[in-house]
What we know:
The structure holds 2 protein chains of 2 kinds. By secondary structure, chain A is mainly alpha-helical. Chain A folds into 2 domains: 24-127, no CATH class; 136-208, no CATH class. Chain A has helices at 3-19, 89-98, 138-144, 163-166, 175-178, 205-208; strands spanning 134-135, 154-155, 161-162, 172-173. Chain A has a two-stranded antiparallel ribbon. In chain A, strands 2-3 form a two-stranded antiparallel ribbon. By secondary structure, chain B is mainly alpha-helical. Chain B has 2 domains: 11-68 and 76-117, no CATH class; 126-201, no CATH class. The A-B interface holds A 76-79, 122, 127-130, 145-146, 148-149, 152, 178, 199-202, 205-206, 209-211 and B 7, 10, 13-16, 23, 32-36, 39, 41-45, 47, 50-51, 159-160, 172-175.
Amino acid sequence: MNKKFLMGILVLIVAGFVAAPAFAAISGSAHDFSSETWSGGQLCVVCHTPHNASTALPAPLWNHAATAASFTVYSSPTLNAGVLPQPGPSSKACLSCHDGTVAIDSFGGATGSEFVTGSDLVGTDLANDHPVSFTYDTALATADGGLFDPATKTVSILGDKSIKDGMLIGDKVECGSCHDVHKTKGYSTSSSKLLLVSNAGSGLCLTCHNK
Amino acid sequence: MAFVSLVQVRVFAVITGSPHDFSGVSSVHGAGEICKVCHTPHNGRSREAPLWRGRLAVYDTYRLYSSDTLDATVNQPRAPSKACLTCHDGAIAKGPVTGCIDCHVNGGHGSRDNNLSDDHPFSFTFDTALAQQDGALQDPSVATVSSLGGKTIKEGMLYQDRLECSSCHDVHATKGDSKTAAKLLLVSNNQGNLCLTCHNK
């Protein structure tokens, strides 16, 4: 075999690796509605639009109807994060289907009729769900005593990014801190719940909770 | 440097491998997860304990401790201790989602026992007034606990000024001596040190 042939093989192998990610992980995921007739065979359009985006939520190029619900927030005597606010924009984007008040197929100005049901339904009562939309910083970790410092604790499956860099959104815990809607980051590519970190041995919980 | 080494020690969560790690017991006891036996990230069933997965203790009333020399008013178990009793009263065993009374009691395992009369009292307010009234208790607002980083009894051991199960035992094997001490004790009881943390004897 001559050098050119070997190089050709190498190019093919590299091209193969490069070609693989051409299939985005959202394709075929729980959030791929392209097989539904109401999606018109499209994938991103249920949430995003390249033009004339909705200003109902400050989420990127938003195209879905936004929830107008008033949420019951989580509270606990052992919570050091203070009184929680209503969910922030990032989590509201998720709740704009998962609170059950807005149909999945309500997007692009249309009003749909298919609602989230079953275990995927979070509802508007968030008091029995892990808190979201609170600032998780070094000060909170110190005050709580049972949390890792998000600025220094690294997460191996997220390329050793810190919790702050890899999981928090604007320094806050949001739905996206545990779940990757696009099934792209960390462990989410192989997780049915789109978890950023595998919860075997409670690995996801223990990423932040120092217990 | 001291700070860095502390952070490194804590990389391994201490509940892992502790008496409350049931991840290896069987599929119904957490399915390879640890936190799941007690907690859930969504749809918790009780607001009395953080994101509680199952039910809390089943008894409405327990037989409480009493003593002629007891100055405290002992209440029926409050929320944090009820969480412990969920398993440790023998009425409900450890288990996910439905609570295991269905298997462990109706199935003939375990014994129901609401008798706390032979156990150290808990769910009572332990404050300066009680210490003064009793005369043989440390003032919880003043007395400090070295294994808890010099926190006072009030700050490091009490829950909303009450003595609860968690005042002696750390379920997560995280605080104070509980990482290594038997019975998950916050303060190792060598030479009665845990008892003498509060009892001025």
